[in-house]
Structures are given as structure tokens and as C-alpha cells.
Amino acid sequence: MADKLRLLIVDDSKIALAQLGAIISEIDCAEVVGTAENGLSAIRSAADSTPDLILMDIVMPEMDGLSALRLMRAKNPEVRVAMVSSLGGSGSHAEEAFRLGAVQVIAKPFDPEIINALIESEVSLQMKET
User: Fold this and answer.
1) Cβ atoms 46, 54 nearer than 8 A
2) Number of folded domains in the chain?
3) How far apart are CA 21 and CA 92, in angstroms?
4) What is residue 80's three-state secondary structure?
5) Whole-Å CA distances, 39 to 23, 47, 110, 112
6) Which domain holds residue 26?
7) Beta strand 30-36 with 104-107: parallel, antiparallel or unpaired?
8) What is the pLDDT of residue 1?
9) What are residue 45's phi and psi, to 5 degrees?
10) 69-75 — which CB contacts under 8 Å span 24+ positions?
């Protein structure tokens, strides 16, 4: 695959944005094409940067990740979103994320191996589609 997997990172925590950015910078087949601090700005950023995958926090101010996911999928059912949660990836938030079409729910603190496996899976999926 000549091009890298394009990622949009959405989190209201600057620390989480930096951590995810650092993990992704170590993965040769991926690049961060944008960041956003809430669901509203994520919707705008996704339209502008056309990412292949969005990593989006569930709990954020102004518009949470589940509401943003719902709106994004209504406009583009093919959008690929993995939700991020400090809630351990369990419970009603994770269930709702999967029901809305999230491809994965990732727990904070981030495990680089899980992020890497997600990206490798997304790259493989893209290669199959082309």
C-alpha cells in the first residue's frame, strides 16, 4: 500500500491526543491528518480531512463521541470509527458504540499493541477493498 492510513484523533484531553499521536507516529503505515477536541469539531474535521479511520473519545464536552458517531454514520454509513474510553471499554457506552457501528472500543490508558493491531487490521481491510 503506497499511501498511509489517514487518522483523525478526537479527544478533549491534550494528553490523550499527544499519546495517540506519539503511538501512531511510530507506525509506518499510518499518519495523523487531524485532531479535534469534541464531537462537533470532529464532524467538521472529518469532512475536511477525509480520514480512513477516526479514533474518538466517548465522553467529551459540547458533543460526545456517541452523538458524533451517530451523525457521522447517518451522513456516511461507511465511515470507520474506533471509540476511545477511560471507562474501560465496558458497559452501556461500549454497547452503544458497537450498536452505532464503531469498529472497536479502546480503553485508556492506551496500549500501543492494541492501537497497532487496529491499524494493521484497517490497512488489511483497505487492501482487500482495492
Assistant:
1) yes
2) 1
3) 27
4) coil
5) 22, 12, 20, 24
6) 5-129
7) unpaired
8) 43
9) -65, -40
10) 69/97, 69/100, 69/101, 69/102, 70/100, 71/39, 71/43, 72/42, 72/43, 72/46, 73/100, 73/101
Q: Provide the strand spans (E) within the chain.
A: 5-10, 30-36, 53-57, 81-85, 104-107
CATH number at residue 71: 3.40.50.2300
Q: Give per-residue pLDDT as tens, 43-75.
A: 999 988 899 999 999 999 999 999 999 999 999
pLDDT by residue (tens digit) across 95-125? 999 999 999 999 888 999 999 999 999 999 8
The full length of the chain comes to: 130
Query: How much is the pTM?
Result: 0.92
